[in-house]
Amino acid sequence: MSSSDPKTRPKPGPWPPAPDAAPVPPTSWAKRTGFRPKFSGETNASESGQIALPPRARENENQPDLEAGRVRPAPLVANGEQPVGEKGPVEKDQTVKKRREGDGANKGGSGAGANGHTGTNGAAETGAASQPQQPTRRPLRNEEVADVLPQNVDDEGFVGRHSHMKYDLRDTPGLVPIGLYGFQHFLSMLGSLILIPLVIVPPMGGTYEDTANVVSTVLFVSGVTTLLHSFFGSRLPLIQGPSFVFLAPALAIINSPEFQGLKGNNFKHIMKELQGAIVIASAFQTILGYSGLMSLFLRLINPVVVAPTIAAVGLSFYSYGFPLVGTCLEIGAAQILLVIVFSLYLRKISVLGHRIFLIYAVPLGLGITWAAAFLLTEAGAYSYKGCDTNVPASNIISEHCRKHVSRMKHCRVDTSHALKSSPWFRFPYPLQWGTPVFNWKMALVMCVVSVIASVDSVGSYHASSLLVASRPPTPGVVSRGIGLEGLSSVLAGLWGTGTGSTTLTENVHTIAVTKMGSRRAVELGACVLIVLSLVGKVGGFIASIPEVMVAALLCFMWAMLAALGLSNLRYSEAGSSRNIIIVGLSLFFSLSIPAYFQQYGISPNSNLSVPSYYQPYIVASHGPFGSKYGGLNYVMNTLLSLHMVIAFLVAVILDNTVPGSRQERGVYVWSESEAARREPAVVKDYELPFRVGRVFRWVKWVGL
């Protein structure tokens, strides 16, 4: 290892030293195949169809290394030769390069070394050899990984390690910074944590007090499950909470035909049915993870599958978002415009080193709009003489009041009494709504949805690991994380949150924007969340958010979710005709096939018992499946009316049957177990704490 010439440098490990005449093969599939994408939209195609990217000029700033997870100082070594007059930095870089190439050689077929079979993004390496008589400059690392992330992207645009993180996975800068960043992390994801209870409780027949109690329960379970995931799951800084993946099936169960004629306390009865379905589906997800089946299932999950599946989750709620915003257009539209202005037009503004408008776009927009609506309400803008918002609409006789009842109900901010009626202290406890009721047809629907939630989590694991960890996790770590998410959903079912608990997709965006990847900060933020959940007034305050503002925030959140899903295509050749057709078909049929099921058997003049924005979720009562088995009809009509299920089925079948290279498909690459155990950084990133990993070391499919 004393020589810096790559032609003569011996490789460490069990392999014999390479002959002097044999050049070191390139260290990535991109170098071997000559693949160089150009992200500006202009392409220089060669005869083989590959896209050529001209070499970039050497930059004097530090460039991050996606393969090793560290920032390397520039200038870099070209072909192992040190530039004149740049001894200090180059000597250090030569040492780093030797160690990394040595690691790759030791891995063999592990996926990153010189003799490995896969590169950074998972494409297969070819055996092309270099020309000895024409030594060329060894490309910079940021050129080699051009397939992973765009080079010319702004620093908040999911740019992996090109955006320098303030704190990486194992950083602990101090109690005060960790506390501030942890609170910031959870506050920036406020919408994902609190909005789902505000959507599902009203159609269940719940009161404002029930909504406040469910919100407190969600905050408590989210804090507990985030701690569990950080210590015993994937160990990545990912917040767990009620995912939008579970929202559509929950609404379908809530609007089931057998619940339409209920009298009395509908809320508790429907909640117990939801709890039973979630517990059974969570047990299935736990088995999927801890049995090691997830490691096999990972072979079918690639960016071309994840992208349309998650995008379909966000697009599926188009019938709910703006129709509710339109009930009080001046409040709802102002809310949407404020969030757009903060997150896009003011995103560059920094205060004390923090992009407050980008990070806190949702809470800032909510606070300003809520304050404006309060002022309008107090000024009497929504007060009409002789009209009372507490009188049911069916009992209003005056035509004048009937005309304005919708505006009084949706625009006023004093119609909710949740804050006044909420206690100061309330401890969420399991089975608080009663013993769960287990129904096999609803449980089967939720089991399929838990698979979709696992696909969502896999994409989040991979993207977040590129941002904060030294290397992506092993398939065993991914399986361990999915298994723990199943256990977390069991807790959510027992406590009664109304949905399962899984990794929130918005984690990746939050980490990229805040530059905060420390799991200690997420753990401390989770502890704060648990404390807040015990204060009943917090749940009451959140439950007081007007319905139109909730819908306006959801319009933004669901749009973000769709975009986050499609952003997974950056790991593949997004311009490939194969991928374009697969993604296009998946998205189109994910909207068209459910529309057929949702509209089947409904005449234009039919008088439905639910509002128009809930019509897509009553398909079980009128779907095209009409066999003599009522339970089977319910399952098939409900599942095939869910957009994400159709998108997943179309994408996973086409992506795994249509021929395509690993480079073109952008196959996810996970660290090999044996190679990961030899790297101290990877072990520290993913090993279970408190020596728990040693106890379960024999279970090789759920760990390093």
TrEMBL record:
| Keywords for this protein | Membrane, Transmembrane, Transmembrane helix
What would you give as a GO molecular function for this chain, any one? transmembrane transporter activity
**Pfam families under this entry?**
Xan_ur_permease
> Is Ligase given among the entry's keywords?
no
Please note every region of biased composition (Low complexity): 117-129
Under what name is this protein listed?
A: Nucleobase-ascorbate transporter 12
Per UniProt, subcellular location reads as:
Membrane
Name one cellular component (GO) term: membrane
**Per the record, where are the segments of Gly residues compositional bias?**
105-116
Bias type Pro residues, positions: 11-26
Q: Which family does it belong to?
A: Belongs to the nucleobase:cation symporter-2 (NCS2) (TC 2.A.40) family.
Membrane spanning stretches: 175-200, 212-229, 274-293, 324-345, 357-376, 437-455, 521-542, 548-567, 579-597, 634-654
Q: Region Disordered: what ranges?
A: 1-157
**InterPro entries, per the entry:** NCS2
Q: How does it sit in the membrane?
A: Multi-pass membrane protein
Its domain of life reads Eukaryota
- The annotated regions of Basic and acidic residues compositional bias extend over 88-104
Organism name: Herrania umbratica
